[in-house]
Amino acid sequence: MRYAVTVGDKAYNIEVGGDREIEIDGVPHQVDIQNIDGYSLFSLLLDNRSYELIVEREGQQFRILLEGEMYAVSVTDEHARRLMEAPARVPSGEVAVKAPMPGLVVAVPATLGQEVKIGQGLIILEAMKMENELRAPRGGRVKAIRVSPGQVVDKDQVLVVIG
Amino acid sequence: MLQKVLVANRGEIAVRVLRACGELGVRTATVYSDVDRSALHVRYADEAYHIGPAPAKDSYLRIDKIIDVAQKCGADAIHPGYGFLAENPEFARACQEAGFIFIGPPPEAISAAGDKLAARRLACKAGVPVIPGTYEEMRDDELLAEAERLGYPLFVKALAGGGGKGMRLVHTSEELRSALASAHREAESAFGNGALYLEKVIQGARHVEFQILADMHGHMIHLGERECSIQRRHQKMVEEAPSIAVDKGVRDRMGKAAIKVAQAAGYVNTGTIEFLLDQEKKFYFLEMNTRVQVEHPVTELVTGIDIVKEQLRIASGRKLRYKQGDVQFKGHAIECRISAEDPFNNFLPSIGRITALSEPTGPGVRVESGLYEGFEVSLYYDPLIAKVIVWGETRGEAILRMRRALSEYRIVGVKTTIPFHQRLLDHTNFIAGQIDTTFVEERFSLVEKEAEHAEVAALAAALLSYQKRQKAIAMIPSRKVERESPWKRAGRWEAMQR
């Protein structure tokens, strides 16, 4: 199985041949990955080098904590890519910014159609008596703003869509 | 000695106090809210009493319920920990009136410290340098006039302050005018008292505080300083002892000043006198904290003195076992506060169930925590969930040891500030000790570092995607079967043999 993987601004072509064989940009490696806690803690042996990873997954998007660094990883397999490429430009790669907890929208610095950079503030949400700035998980155009200041939102409610 | 202590708190500090009681052979009781039934402090104590629903105002802040429990369980003393009721003079008084020993200073000392202006006047009277600013409650027009005399930049602070609430940094009279209005409101809602005062900003200052121990017989000593300059939003994140900026001469002078302030307040038990230390080694009184502090372990590690056990001894009426000359400092200690916050997303609080936990251990490492696998981090209480404290012969060894300890720490299920600490410990300015209270907010960033393991992360994600796909195609045996109880298996096997 062939995958196109992006980590931040880096892109990799990865070929997975089985549970233990993997090629990254044409270079073969031996791998073994084991889940530890039944949820999100994994042990990875990569050419016998040992890593522990905490993995959060939502569809094709991964957030991986590895040796103190957080990596935002996006995985597309070849089937999905072919599907995407075949019909003329299906909109893809939209990211919904959701409320991480119930709270009150205090301000919406983002505007519709705005080009935003990764890390740019989109929404200010008050929760646990603190004002929290929700930032863009990646760069792109603000495609939709679903809330307005003063609105109370639930956990996981979609606030802004970036495409 | 005390016979039974009621610990009126939760989380790591409740466990810390219960441990001290255990070592002294004192029986223990504690309290819990609806969501804390399975918490570590409940299981660790000899007795535990339910006191109400999850919100603190209905449980851990209910003076009446806590006094009730103390009566019911026959405690002779109450330990408030930190936070909640620890610095509430009403609570200290209520304990005394109901005939219980409050493990902390007298209510009058708590009141004097809680009124920041009273504390500033007290320090002045004791002949200790205080940050230039205002000393009496003033109307806004008077504050504006004083500001011109003092000169900008200034801090606006709340008289009843704490935790940075009602606090504003202002550079011009325009800014001051608008800051006063919003700070009044914020202080009023946070403390029920909107009064404000002004303090001049000491540029490039470090936060250096002194630990005090005082018995009921008029003896008072200090246990040296802690440096707590690593802060974010006026909340401490890392503390160390000794301070790299404090030599023996400065320590003696600051220690004496700390004792003068504490004596002027009629202080008993443990407390902390906070100072700012500027680049010319001039120090200024900041405030007095009348509780055991979150960061007390760093002092314990460099002095060898168990501060919480001393609190219990002092409360039972014993004399201090140490004179100032007995207090010796050895090596260097660092504490990292681990909070359930996402350092990669503006320190947003993170809640959830702990699915895996593996705590650091080994030489020179101490963990204070209320965590266990299955623990639910909720939004009802402080996000501080654990502390890692290390000791090393030198500051360098302590930093390397902390790096090692944090790389061992696995808290899975919520996001934590561990990656923040790891990055901080790699920062050249931190390693060189070039820090002040503005360091984290003005000169430190989590985003800039080159992502070293991007390829490994990419590979892991591809592999997991592949496995998920394979799983969808072929059902694999579920974990349940693998984990079948041996009793059940033995039972079935026996039944088949019949």
Summary of the model, kept short:
With 163 residues, chain A is mainly beta. In chain A, 5% of the residues lie in helices and 58% in strands. The interface between A and B is large, with 54 and 44 residues.
Could you please describe the fold and organization of this structure?
The complex is a heterodimer of chains A (163) and B (498). Helices cover 5% and strands 58% of the residues of chain A. Chain A is mainly beta. Chain A has two domains: 2-77, 2-Layer Sandwich (Glycoprotein, Type 4 Pilin); 89-162, OB fold (Dihydrolipoamide Acetyltransferase, E2P) (Beta Barrel). In chain A, a hairpin with a 5-residue loop joins β4 (27-35) and β5 (41-46). The longest helix of chain A has 8 residues, at 78-85. In chain B, a hairpin with a 2-residue loop joins β10 (220-232) and β11 (235-241). Chain B has helices spanning 11-24, 40-44, 63-73, 89-97, 107-114, 116-125, 140-150, 173-191, 248-264, 296-303, 307-315, 395-408, 418-426, 428-431, 439-443, 454-473, 479-482, 486-497; strands at 4-7, 27-33, 47-52, 77-79, 101-102, 154-158, 168-170, 196-200, 206-214, 220-232, 235-241, 269-277, 283-289, 332-339, 341-342, 348-349, 352-353, 356-358, 365-369, 376-377, 384-392, 410-412. Chain B has four domains: 4-103, Rossmann fold (3-Layer(aba) Sandwich); 132-200, Dna Ligase, domain 1 (2-Layer Sandwich); 206-448, D-amino Acid Aminotransferase, Chain A, domain 1, CATH 3.30.470.20; 450-498, no CATH class. Helix content of chain B is 38%, strand content 23%. Chain B has 18 helices and 22 strands. The chains are: A mainly beta (163), B alpha+beta (498). At the A-B interface, β1, β2, β4, β5 and β6 of A face β16, α13 and α16 of B.
